[in-house]
Amino acid sequence: MTSPEIRPTDPGLWVLHALRCAGASSLGRVRAFTGLDGPDAESELIDLGAAGLVTRTPGAMPFWALTDAGRAADAERVTAELDAADARRAVHAAFARFLVLNPELLDLCTAWQLRRVDGVMTANDHGDPAYDSRVLRRFADLDRRAVPVLAQLAAALPRFGRYRHRLAEALARAAAGEPAYVTDSTVSYHTVWAELHEDLLATLGLRR
Which of 158, 147, 150, 143 is nearest to 196 (CA)? Predict the structure, then answer.
């Protein structure tokens, strides 16, 4: 498993890219994406704000978002990073492998959220531990098959190494009895996987 101690070589890019992949985000979500400490993440956000690349919306739960200039800057920086590492071919190859797994992940998320009871599809209230355990075993199997894809990405661009840690942590928390870590929080397996999908598209300059 990739070490959780991966540190950004370009923290400004990682913070900018967090908002590109996760959308408008709280400081906590930026921290989860980047692995930066709170003060470091906030300092980067303030600097990006001063440069006109991000905006902060105040409130009880303030959040940060990219400006149009920020989105353009992120695309430029990510492309430069990809080309400097000569990693385009490797990331394309890993993305192709990711796309094979992605439909299965979506099916598993549906199986976690809905189940058939007396022939009728209904919301899963997680009152049947045996059912949830079966679905989690399928998640664990998918996760094992995702490991080499994530390793290929991390070898190409080290910032992708954060995803291995985040997905493994979400799965471990779910297996320990915290069902929100499967699909129902900003740190859930499904959310992290979706951010990875968006990251791959953004890194390669592709549209959905």
Answer: 150
* Other C-beta atoms lying within 10 Å of the C-beta of residue 98: 20
pTM above 0.85, yes or no: yes
Q: Is the four-CA dihedral 32, 37, 40, 42 of positive or negative sign?
A: positive
Is the distance from CB of 98 to CB of 200 less than 8 angstroms?
A: yes
Is residue 29 exposed (0-12), middle (13-18) or buried (19+ Cβ within 10 Å)? buried
* 65 shares its domain with 167: no
Full residue range of the structural domain in which residue 115 is found: 86-204
Q: Do residues 147 and 167 make contact, with C-beta atoms less than 8 angstroms apart? A: no
Render pLDDT for 117-170 as a digit per residue (tens, 0 to 9): 888 889 999 999 999 999 999 999 999 999 999 999 999 999 999 999 999 999
Q: What is the pLDDT of residues 7-60, one digit of tens each?
A: 567 899 999 999 999 999 999 999 999 999 999 999 999 999 999 999 999 988
Please give the tally of structural domains in the chain: 2
CATH number of the structural domain spanning residue 47: 1.10.10.10
Please report, for residues 16, 38, 62, 81, the alpha-carbon distance to residue 54 in angstroms, rounded to integers and kept in the order given: 8, 17, 13, 20
Domain boundary among 28, 59, 82: 82
Q: Is residue 92 domain-shared with residue 71, that is, in the same domain?
A: no
